[in-house]
Amino acid sequence: MIKTKNVIKVMVLSVLLVLFSIVQSCGENDNHPKKTNEDIATLSADDENIESHHHADETEPHTHSHSSQSDTGKRIMNPEDIEELWIFPESKDQLGSGGMLQVYMDAESHPNASSGFAKYELGVGGALPEHKHNKTEEIAYFLSGSGIVISYENAKRIETVVKEGYVWYTAPGEWHSFKNTGDTPLKLVFATIPNAKHGLLNFFKKVSAEPGKQSTALSAEAFAKLASENDMILKPATLD
């Protein structure tokens, strides 16, 4: 009888141990939910952007995550990368007072960048026609030379002398221009925001020519149309 009771006790203990194991296993599953098909697909997509690399001094490989975002263009531009153009050249061999433009960043070279960036050297006696941009902001920093910036406040025309170290900001919708009043080129670097495909830099590229090449002759109507298409609205003479 005693032997039978001992056997029963052993069987009960065994059953309790089995039940405890099952309960513990269920608790672990609750803490770590099963991956859904969507989770598995996401992990698979992430794995495509991870490469395993081995180094001679390592016993285990490690991984680097690589962004799938498209390249925004070169991060460092040297003089050989710059697009150099003559603005309103007198001839294919004569630069003239229109000056020289050097494009570092625009919508073509850096399509995902927020801003375009260029350097401009306005020739002696040169000036740009008064204009505005409906969408474009400009920020310019004068490197050397001297000149006059033209702006308007309450419809009143204002001329401000600028030189090395001056910064010029132009908001969308503001009539503006500048001219070189010195005896050397008026040099500045400037940013255009946004970096639009049909923006100010594109306009300059359309009316310019590479050094040694003939520029395209444009009528006044064609010039104004091209300017308008690239967010450069010329100021009507009747507003003076």
Automatic annotation (TrEMBL):
Residues 1-25 form the signal peptide. Residues 121-190 form the Cupin type-2 domain. Pfam families: Cupin_2. Transmembrane segments: none annotated. GO terms for molecular function: metal ion binding. It comes from the Bacteria. Residues 53-63 have a biased composition (Basic and acidic residues). InterPro entries: Cupin_2 (IPR013096), GPI/OXD (IPR051610), RmlC-like_jellyroll (IPR014710), RmlC_Cupin_sf (IPR011051). This is Cupin domain-containing protein.
